[in-house]
Amino acid sequence: MPSSETGSPTLGPSMIWRNWVSNQVCRVKHFEMPSSDHDVCSTIKAAASNDLRVRVVGTGHSYTPIVPTDGVLISAERLSGIENIDPTSGSVTLRGGTRICDVGPELRSAGWALPNQGDIDLQTISGAVSTGTHGSGDSLQCLAGPIIGMRIAIGDGSIVDFDASQDTDALNAAKVCLGMLGVVLSVTMKLVPAFDLHDKIWREDFEECMNHLDQLCQENRSLRVFWCPTEHSASLYSLPDTSGIGRTRSKADVCEIRTLNVTTQPSAAVEAQAGERIGPSYRIFPGSIPMPNHNECEYSVPYEDGPAVLREIRKLIQTKHPSQIFPVEYRT
């Protein structure tokens, strides 16, 4: 961060910031891109001395207003990289601005992997953790679950280390903090041995899917179901054409079902089979679906109520909001 003639830190320029789908916009008084922990702390102190609020942004992959500010916005873009892979403890320490997509290849080379990921891997690890980003699988945790340590620059410009071996409650409180505690400088996460995934997608009628939804959840490591109200719904989410590999000839009111399971089969085993892929976990988790520009909301309900809730949502859309044709995604 630049300094004035007196040696005091100065703040960066004003700018307009937008998130990835442009539903959150703000004009910040100062935009900063620190590259070191020291720079982050200096920025926070300079903001405090000017009575300015501070927020931090990763890649802007959130629909909610957790970033917008009229004060100082700190970008985590230059706070990236793998600090250490510890084979003894089976853990990795990542700088806060490290993108998830940049972690997998190096972990794979070292024989390790993240236990679970979401369907987007462009987020920074600090942003994904702080917002509770998750994948699917009723026996798997969200990205914050495997964290055993965090380093955060707090509001007075000092640095606090959170360690599971010293204060589990404090660490748990810091994990999904929505950026309220400060700037996440680094996270340390438990890993699992590297593994491959078998990705499979197919189509079923809505009620057929609902009737064995629990079985699908129990028999697969990860499950995603997209209810498509109309024949045009799938294309709105860039879902692949499963009309030739589905269990129904219907084009509307259908479910596109995607499962992920650990496998030791080579990728060649399914190369000729439509709707199937095998590969390293970090490549398969995000899927082959290009994420469209869209806005959404997400709700958590008890597992046992899931099918009933999805049926009610379907009924509501079909009877009162027939123009709503975007897919509804269901995960456990």
Q: How much beta, percentage-wise?
A: 25-35%
Q: If you compute it from the alpha carbons, what radius of gyration comes out, rounded to the nearest whole angstrom?
A: 22 Å
Structural class: alpha+beta
Q: How many structural domains?
A: 3
Specify the number of helices.
9
Shape: globular
Poorly predicted runs are: none
Could you tell me the number of beta strands? 17
Side by side, the strands of the main sheet go 6-7-11-9-10
Report how far the terminal alpha carbons are from each other: 44 Å
3D structure, described in words:
With 332 residues, the protein is α+β, with helices and mostly antiparallel strands. The chain has 3 domains: 61 residues, Uridine Diphospho-n-acetylenolpyruvylglucosamine Reductase, domain 2 (2-Layer Sandwich); 112 residues, Uridine Diphospho-n-acetylenolpyruvylglucosamine Reductase, domain 3 (2-Layer Sandwich); 136 residues, no CATH class. The protein is built from 9 helices and 17 strands. The strands form 5 sheets. Strands 6-7-11-9-10 form a 5-stranded antiparallel sheet. Strands 16-13-15-14-17 form a 5-stranded antiparallel sheet. Strands 3-5-4 form a 3-stranded parallel sheet, covered by helices on one side. The two termini are 44 Å apart.
Sum this structure up briefly.
With 332 residues, the chain is an alpha+beta fold. It is globular, with a radius of gyration of 22 Å.
Please specify the SSE layout and strand pairing.
Elements: E1 15-18, E2 25-28, E3 30-32, H1 37-49, E4 54-57, E5 72-75, E6 82-86, E7 91-95, H2 104-109, E8 112-113, H3 125-130, E9 147-153, E10 159-163, H4 168-175, E11 183-190, E12 192-193, E13 196-205, H5 206-211, H6 213-219, E14 222-228, H7 233-236, E15 254-263, E16 276-280, H8 281-284, H9 306-320, E17 328-331
Parallel strand pairs: 3-5, 4-5
Antiparallel strand pairs: 1-2, 6-7, 7-11, 8-12, 9-10, 9-11, 13-15, 13-16, 14-15, 14-17
